[in-house]
Design a protein that fits this description.
The structure is a single chain. By secondary structure, the chain is an alpha+beta fold. It has one domain. Helix content is about 20%, strand content about 40%. It is built from three helices and ten strands. Strands 7-8-9-1-2-3-4-5-6-10 form a ten-stranded mixed beta sheet, with helices on one face. Helix 1 packs across helix 3 and helix 2 packs antiparallel against helix 3. The longest helix has 14 residues. It is globular, with a radius of gyration of 16 Å. The relative contact order is 0.23. The N terminus is likely disordered.
């Protein structure tokens, strides 16, 4: 699930661009990557749905993702991943626990973005009639698909200090597991 969450974060980064042109996936991914890296920060509201997985419901869920420099926060229905660029917090909401670890290069959404740039097979862009990217369909294992759709994007916003950290005082019920 850890890698899956990073993958979702990167896909959200990839979706956050203005227009995508009809070209091969690899060139599109590169163009998106450059566009994403050109912004000071980014905030994306989205919906996501897993289709074809007998172990998971196909309900549409909402999420948010925030990115600034090496820091990010991804909020999904049942978990949150927060990183200030040095420390990562993985908060499992229903389990009331947060796992704290050091950031590794593999955790970075930008590292995963670089990997996707090298191999974009399994990604199908969802476009509107004007050619704007509105979402992505991602082929997972054994016929399972993840469908992501953007509902809102904001760029170059300033975030308050502490936004990209987990606030233990605000969650006294949460078990903190320090894995550093």
């Amino acid at each position: 699930m850890k890698k899956h969450l990073s993958f979702v974060a990167v896909i959200l980064l990839m979706i956050a661009t203005h227009t995508m042109f009809a070209q091969g996936n690899k060139n599109v991914i590169h163009t998106l990557s450059q566009s994403i890296r050109s912004h000071k920060s980014m905030e994306v509201s989205f919906t996501y749905q897993t289709v074809g997985d007998p172990n998971q419901s196909e309900e549409v869920k909402e999420g948010q993702a925030y990115f600034q420099d090496k820091a990010y926060k991804v909020i999904l229905a049942d978990q949150q991943t927060i990183s200030d660029g040095t420390t990562t917090w993985r908060y499992l909401v229903e389990d009331e626990e947060v796992m704290v670890g050091n950031v590794s290069e593999d955790d970075s959404p930008f590292k995963v973005l670089d990997e996707i740039e090298r191999d974009s097979s399994g990604l199908t862009p969802i476009m509107d009639q004007k050619g704007n990217l509105k979402g992505l369909e991602i082929e997972m294992a054994e016929g399972v698909k993840l469908i992501l759709s953007i509902t809102e994007m904001k760029f170059d916003k300033d975030y308050k200090e502490g936004f990209f950290t987990f606030d233990e005082k605000a969650h006294p019920e949460v078990d903190v597991i320090d894995m550093r």
